[in-house]
Design goal:
Elements: H1 5-8, E1 18-23, H2 27-44, E2 61-69, E3 72-86, E4 89-97, H3 107-121, E5 126-132, H4 136-141, E6 144-152, E7 155-162, E8 177-180
Parallel strand pairs: 4-5
Antiparallel strand pairs: 1-2, 1-8, 2-3, 3-4, 5-7, 6-7
Length: about 180
């Protein structure tokens, strides 16, 4: 077998060229999504001690951004969860993107787009989220309206509502969206 020199000389670090943003459909995706949430909300931000799982996780739908290498899934680098609180009223929460991937392909925005679009396809008439204060400008850019300022977990947040007209229904959230890495 002949191995081309260019492959052998390739640098060990890589940057995926694409990400699949989708609903979780395997145990490894869910496990990595929960690990990412712990890394962001417990270790990096110190919002929770030990773990951030709560009762909502028992009935929420988890979404993930999965990096792809050669078109094959590699690792979960972003996540968010959604749930229907009552008929037509949906919530998004626990949006997290791995620190090393926050500048790749607008992963947070794509996770938000799929979260709202998939809830919209399932009858959402109102989609809300408690957004950390530093993330409010991103949500406003994505056509969310600030309803009121709040303090949650000892940190400033805003209760925000998505403009559903800006989020066409997504009827195939398991396939989801392909996001390209920023170059």
């Amino acid at each position: 077998m002949v191995i081309e020199d260019s492959i052998v000389d390739a640098p060990p670090a890589y940057a995926p060229c694409s990400f699949r943003v989708k609903w979780v459909d395997s145990a490894w995706e869910l496990a990595q999504a929960h690990a990412l949430r712990r890394a962001v909300f417990c270790i990096e931000q110190g919002v929770f001690v030990g773990d951030d799982l709560d009762a909502i996780d028992g009935h929420a739908q988890t979404l993930v951004a999965v990096s792809q290498v050669g078109g094959m899934p590699d690792q979960v680098v972003g996540t968010v969860r959604i749930h229907e609180q009552e008929a037509g009223l949906w919530w998004g929460s626990r949006l997290a993107v791995h620190a090393a991937f926050r500048r790749h392909g607008q992963l947070g925005a794509t996770l938000i787009r799929l979260a709202v679009g998939s809830a919209h396809a399932r009858g959402s008439r109102v989609f809300l989220a408690h957004v950390q204060a530093q993330n409010v400008p991103l949500f406003e850019k994505l056509r969310w309206q600030r309803l009121k300022d709040e303090t949650l977990h000892g940190r400033p947040h805003a209760l925000m509502q998505a403009d559903l007209a800006a989020y066409p229904p997504c009827h195939d959230p398991v396939t989801g969206f392909l996001a390209r890495a920023a170059r």
